[in-house]
Task: structure prediction
Amino acid sequence: MIKFSNKTFHIYNDDVSYIIKILDNNHLGQLYFGKAIRDRESFDHLLVEKGTNLAPCLFEGNLDFSLEVIKQEYPSYGTGDYRDPAYQVTSKNGSSITDLGYKSHVIKKGKRSIKGLPSTYGENVDTLEINLEDELIGLEVTLRYHVFSNISAIIRSVEFKNIGQETLKIDRAMSSSLDLYDANFEMITLDGAWARERHINSGMLRKGIQSISSSRGTSSAMHNPFIALKRPNTTEHIGEVYGFALIYSGNFLAQVEVDAYDVTRVLLGINPFEFQWRLRPDEIFNTPESVMVYSDKGLNGMSQNFHNLFRNNLMRGKYKNKTRPIVINNWEATYFDFTEESILKIAKTAKEAGIELFVLDDGWFGKRDNDSTSLGDWSVYLKKLPHGIKGLAEKINRLGLSFGLWFEPEMVNEISNLYKEHPDYVIQTPGRNRSYGRNQYVLDFSREEVVVCIFKKMCATIDTANIAYIKWDMNRNITEAFSYSLEATCQKEFFHRYILGVYSLYEKLLARFPDILFESCASGGARFDAGMLYYAPQAWTSDDTDAIERLHIQYGSSMVYPIISMGSHVAAVPNHQVERITSLKMRADVAYFGTFGYELDLNKVSPTDLEQVKGQIAFFKKYREIIQLGDFYRLTQGNFYSWLVVSPNKKTAILGYYKILASPNPSIKKINLVGLDANFKYSCNGKSYFGDELMNVGMILETEFTGLMQAESFKGKYTPGTDKGDFTSQIYVFQAV
Ligand code: DGJ
Result:
């Protein structure tokens, strides 16, 4: 619902309210964002104006109306507000003082997509567009707001239009700006590095600016384009939290500023660092969408809003809301060292175990025996695969598996035909050294001809074979950013144009191959963001396949991203990233909570382990619909991780419980479940429990080993516990009877 009365907009549904008022200076003020409140004629009493004798004020004699204090909707710098602004536009005379006043608005059903950018979509959504204008410089800015009837969130984006005669420069264009009344929040971010992405960090807000960002060309493994502000006592299940996610895969900024009056300003958008956009007369610039979730049901409430929005209103195509095939990927099994024969051997055993899709990873093209050559040459390496991709795919299909293929479309090696033909396609700054990264260079995807060239090369292979899945990798960050196609004054458009190029290649491929399932990847999870989910409904969560490390990564990722989007494989031990040994059971128990698959050669496991793998696959097939499409709850983290999925009808729930290190003589472990039907009677491992018992009393878990004196006289006198040693896991299935 969106109402307008008394110069005030109220955007709301059953869960959330967002209130904006046209202020006395004709700018927009922010009155409220939070739990739904009833609509009424006027919300003027919520407007906070506060005089101080030194703050600059707009109206002579009225010290109360100062932009230094007023909560604003899309603030600018230079007219009394000294906090970081939402936007900056420089006009011909070099000034960036602007004056965006309310001009008109439109309230409508439905929502539009944003040309060239990922965006949410759906039927059950209302839109408010507020048009603001700065007549002096000929700038029109449209603030867009969307509210879905069933999601506790407001989605925002901004459009800049030059309606004047002179060229303007956009120096900063955030997707959303929010001024919250107070600063009593803990800020949560998802940070890391290669192989340890999206670990949860949190800390209380303090005065001044705190932020995360990327300037690498991808959203990055270091910081995810997401922040949450939660009340100090908010838990996973109760309490207030605001979550902010940007639907964008390039350089971003997520910034929180606590001002002198404890107002908290949250900015989210394209990173203004190294950004500028030339806007000539009649030209338009659109920001990506920003999603602002409000939850009073703790962090899980926030996450479920993100999950539902992304699953239903962001992911597209055949695999939207559809369970995903169980994969076998050969990367950790063979790296570059494979032949058609060895691949078929892996695939055959995988099929016998129940796997559904074989994915051929890096090394199938050009003359690629290692990472120094052939990126860009997307035709088969006949020495390894004499019957081509077509021949291999046919054989894999005959085994009863579908076939998937790895590409790294944005890259080129110096040793490649593509580089020989088009050395200028590489991102490089004239006269400067070119930095190396994994022996490869990034192609200038800000140029359409480069995107089209790669599209054609990919099609030439994809067209020949029955390809059901593509893993799109991206293994280095951008350095020496520059494009030969951009004028000197427009070089700072590069990073945004680059990601638009990536999106346009995805769009071309999706249009031509609508049935292919795309999995995004960037050295693992360096581009796991909401923008990518619009094109690729799943992402390789991390190159770290260790079960313990995956607990941190998957737990953190689930803050924003649905389980169905998280690529998760069982790999060999000792683990290739950390050399840790965990049981086959634990590796699967962790990997179940994702897309699920294997990344090892099943011919190399013992017959007993192979039987166990068959059992795991059968288990996953039985429950994947619930795991991938149900409601996911994080329960505990630390030495003991646990999480739960509950089917939409609440009849089935699956609990995953994981212990990292054992301790001597431990306490009894009990977990309170959530989201069940209190009145259902659930059976689990031969016992029955009512939903209210499981949620209020809790589930008492397998007893941990308590130590066993070896002396004969102690034997048989007590039960020492069955959960023994480090790195253990338990899966419980609760079925309503
Ligand atoms: C990085 C990816 O994350 C891995 O899964 C694998 O595809 C390699 N690249 C291949 O080079």
Remarks:
- The mean pLDDT is 96.
